[in-house]
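Before relying on records like the one below, remember that each one covers exactly one chain. Contacts with other chains, cofactors or solvent are not represented anywhere in the record.
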Amino acid sequence: MSVGAGMSVESGKLAELVEPGSRVALADGIGAPRSVSGELAAAAAAAGGVRLLLGWLPVADRELDLAAFADVRAVMSGWGLRRPVDDGRVRALPVRLSAVPSLLHGPLRPDLLVATVVPAPGGGYAFGTEVAWMHAAIAAGARVAGVVAHATPHCDAGPPLPADRLVLVGETDTPPIALEFSPPGDEHRAIAERVAALVPAGARLQVGPGALGVAVLEALRTPVHMDSGLLPEGVVDLDRRGLLAGTPVTTYLAGGPGLLAWAAGRRLLHPIEHTHDLGRLSSGLPFVAVNTAIELDEQGQVNVEGFPGATVGGVGGHADYAAAGARSPGGLSIIAMPATHRGRPTLVERLSAPVSTPGHDVDVVVTEHGTADLRGLDRRERAAALHHLWDRPASS
């Protein structure tokens, strides 16, 4: 069946591309190629010994039978992987996103990448709503099994995919998953006002998705450049208000139809070798990283991964962006979080999981009650500042 751009879909070809004992990487994000998940699992079960590599899956893929694979690993244990990580079906790797390309060229080198593709304006095909680590997989030698997505916008800033490495194995009219988050509460808005006051006009800004990220973008009153691994829906309103400077730099879209319509035709998406490059992020215009945490200890060490037996997320780009913000002249690494969660303080004596981001990459901590500036403080002073912010005495 012809789909334009000089290529045609080869029905049934995916099963031929999945070889016994091979490693298959499944592209991630809201545009992951879910229409062929069942076909991929069936091909893996028939071939035998196939290993699967996953990235950020924001929503569980019920058609992907993980039992069909000999081994399943994830470089970013996103929300959709919480249950299979907890029950042992998926091995969640403690790796920052900037290190993923190195792994793909080394012990996790994939033979095949199954990904969503869209026609590129000048001919050929490109990635759709995410680029992430996929170019690294191709550079490491993987062939691409492409699923043409007719309802997905083109916003890849790079060149088309190499035609000699691409085989079209399917097509779909289903749009990418729409991410919806709870609206900000009063505590989020109070935190966001304090965060916005710390962002200099014209700075480059990174925020995460979710209620707090929405609140931070709504609280801004001066123009910023968006330089963020996940680009949330709030960027559309930021642009409407005249507060978006330049073209955002991102590697994943993280929103719904409004964001997709706004993003169509814009050169937004770059590989993580660019988006998460600490040297680029920490040079030039001031870079402000705004991240949250599940827990924080009195040295500012951050847990974003979860609790014993209860996965929340992965290291992802948290450590990359925090380190870049702390290194950026005029920039900041900010951890913004409510002072309590379900009635329990989020400042703890000991983290419930290994450190996701070290305390020395945290400059400022913001809660709904105030701000603790940790820059230039020794360890005793850092502890005192954080305990004061949470309004309880520091341990002796």
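Residues 13-172 form a domain with the Glutaconate Coenzyme A-transferase fold (CATH 3.40.1080.10).
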